[in-house]
Design goal:
Layout (H helix, E strand, L loop, with lengths): L2 H13 L12 H8 L5 E7 L20 H5 L2 E11 L2 H12 L4 E5 L11 H9 L4 E7 L7 H11 L5
Bound molecules: S-adenosylmethionine.
The site of S-adenosylmethionine has 14 residues, from helix 2 and helix 5.
Amino acid sequence: MAREYFALAARRLARRRLANLALLHGEALYLLAAGLPRGFAATVHVYFPDPWPKSRHQKRRLFSAASVDLVLGLLEPGGRLCFATDFLEYGEEVAALLAAHPALVVERVEGGWPGGARTNYEAKYEAEGRPILRLEARLAGAATPHPAGVVEIAAASGAAPG
Ligand SMILES: C[S@@+](CC[C@H](N)C(=O)[O-])C[C@H]1O[C@@H](n2cnc3c(N)ncnc32)[C@H](O)[C@@H]1O
């Protein structure tokens, strides 16, 4: 989240005296790896994450073989992941990555979320008529390691996946 939006959200939170919200401002991959507990979330919402289209930047993506377990690991058994992007190529890669997880049931949400746009970017892109890829995935059991992540880590460490 950009600093100005963080400050705006913090002001709104204080004004409404909401006690069931926490705002964290920082590097998402670091927060996922070191700042958030495992298996605590009924729903994880990820909307319009930066696609990092240049190949040398793709290691920064929130959804890659190396990082997907950081996101999925937040979910409690039966938890849901909601995702949207206007970067369709990245969206298709995310859909394939999620579908390859044996405990995830992935559906495309066609024609928009019930209740309408969920974020500023979504409202803006809808108004511009941009195509948007939306996914909802449900974790049928516990968040076991993603097979692609296991291969990635084994390759990085020079070991054969067990
Ligand atoms: C395209 S905007 C989408 C904002 C919002 N989710 C929405 O849908 O309106 C992407 C946001 O992700 C933030 N972002 C990108 N990479 C990040 C990272 N590695 N860690 C934390 N935030 C990041 C950017 O600062 C920006 O606010």
